[in-house]
Amino acid sequence: MKYKPIAEVLSKLESTTKRLEMTKILTDFLKNVDKEDLEKVILLLMGTIFPEHSEETIGVADKLMIKVINKASGSDEKEITKMWKDTGDLGEVAEELMKERKQSTLSKDELTVKKVFNNLEKVSRAEGKGSVSDKVSLISELLTNAEPLEAKYLTRTVLGTLRVGVGRGTIRNAISETFNCDKKLVEKAYNLTADYSKVVSIAAGKGDKGLKKVGLDIGRPAKSMLYQKEESIKDGFERVGRPAAIQYKYDGLRMQVHKKNDEVKLYTRRLDEVTKMFPEVVKAVKQNVKQDCVLDAEGVGYHPKKKSYKPFQEISKRIKRKYDIEKLAEETPVVLYIFDILNYNGESCLGKPYKERLKILKKSVNEKKWSIELANQLITNEEGEAQEFYDEALKKDQEGVIMKNLEAPYKPGSRVGYGVKIKPIMEPLDLTITGATWGKGRRSNWLSSFVLSCKKEEGYLEIGKLGTGLSDEQFKEVTKKLKPLITKEEGKEVSVKPEIIIEVAYEEIQKSPTYSSGYALRFPRLIRFRPDKEEPDSLERVKKIYKEQSKK
Ligand code: ATP
């Protein structure tokens, strides 16, 4: 298959922000793709060549890409850098420069999907001496043969910044519509495999029947189950029923542990493999878990001498670390708190009620203090007891508690309410930026006054503007992230694709006709970026907090 139709469909997708239209564009396209090309096509449409759970990445930085564009187009690096500063998107720069060059090239080989995969796979595997020039040659070979539009999307794919606004939900809907499959089954298969390229070939080949058979395999990470928020222990019981399992909400790193024979693998909630970075956890599992299994757990950093917990930030520096791993493991070791079991001896436990899974868990793990333990837990139907347990968790520097329904199955990837988290403070909101204004004077090169939106079904509703509390560095950073997402510019106002999610603190939620949600945040402040989140909080959640605060 040629790469050109993919570039064309990406361009069509980029021209709209409407999810329904995107689904239609994708469905019309996927219908005509040969079965054997579907896996690769889905990955390219998602801006990558590797499935989400893969350890491999293309791993090319802007600077190297500038060298590639230089080699392929003949334009000098300074000129490329200048154009890049103006547009904020090397994809567009490559497109422009390849247009100029087009007239002067006589013969080209048409780009195929296979060639793109071949070269980019080699790029990701290139290591050691000479690897930089190998990478430059491999990518510029693609670019030289690319049409301008192909160059744009190839460049963005190589950099991992495709950003045409196609979310996983749209891919799910498109697969379901193209191959006439149940949307829920498509989603479920994705949550179990974390790989839409796998899901699309099952959907195309075996339809609903095939999707139903997808299971959770040891060695391939699945999406983690997530929890809804509740404001109090009482509300928690109402949601999960009585009695409930109440556990510390540890402030650490979610770890999905896969053990098969003597091999142990660790994955984060974003499905990044972190096995090598946490050797003490691997060792503890090998020594104290007998059967093959998949465990759901939280790795919490602690002070080895004082035996007190360290906050998540302390262990976050161990992620992606390539050297001094053993030294860091000694300074900030991690204790593994296990709270669920998803596969036992090769058999899925997902459908079993939580109380059963807890029993299996208990017999599977040989607990060892400050190394590998089951999550601290109380099973009760008593609000008073639960409240005491919650206070104790806070005293031990943990975030709060998670209350879990004892009868519920495990649903990968869902925030289904089989468990709820309870934390003390007024919850910050996760919101997406949908617009901004170019600043004045000193700030004229930066976007400011960011329009914040929450989610409503398929769309977004505005709820406030965030303009203060950012450092110069942060203004620069946000501007860089937002520039490629601009969809419309009118005077100083811009609209952007809702892709950046930030955590926002505020004093109060007020009713307000100013914004489309009907609510406004008083004194919103940026807490942090949330690259790990795919969607902002919903209007329902805003309404709920508004109601809660009115009661106080
Ligand atoms: P946060 O409020 O920190 O942003 P979140 O929205 O990122 O939470 P949630 O699914 O709401 O994620 O909270 C669950 C997270 O809490 C899990 O991903 C896990 O890392 C952590 N956690 C800590 N202790 C437990 C526990 N006992 N059971 C389940 N998850 C736990």
Description of the structure:
The strands form 4 sheets. Strands 12, 13, 14, 15, 16, 17 and 20 form a 7-stranded antiparallel β-sheet that branches. Strands 3, 4, 5, 6, 7 and 8 form a 6-stranded mixed β-sheet that branches. The model has no long low-confidence stretch (mean pLDDT 92). This protein has 3 domains: 48-159, DNA ligase, ATP-dependent, N-terminal domain (DNA ligase i, domain 1); 228-422, DNA ligase/mRNA capping enzyme (D-amino Acid Aminotransferase, Chain A, domain 1); 429-551, Nucleic acid-binding proteins (OB fold (Dihydrolipoamide Acetyltransferase, E2P), Beta Barrel). β15 and β16 (493-496) form a beta hairpin. The protein has 20 helices and 20 strands. Helices cover 40% and strands 21% of the residues. The relative contact order is 0.09. By secondary structure, it is of the alpha+beta class. It has helices at 4-14, 19-30, 38-45, 62-73, 77-87, 90-102, 113-125, 131-144, 148-159, 168-178, 183-193, 196-212, 233-240, 279-288, 312-316, 325-331, 354-364, 383-395, 472-482, 539-551; strands at 228-230, 244-249, 253-260, 263-267, 293-301, 334-344, 347-348, 372-374, 377-380, 400-405, 419-422, 429-438, 447-456, 459-466, 486-490, 493-496, 501-505, 508-511, 519-522, 525-529.
Key words describing this protein structure:
binds adenosine-5'-triphosphate, 552 residues, OB fold (Dihydrolipoamide Acetyltransferase, E2P), seven-stranded antiparallel beta sheet, DNA ligase i, domain 1, alpha+beta, 40% helix, 20 helices, 20 strands, globular, six-stranded mixed beta sheet, D-amino Acid Aminotransferase, Chain A, domain 1
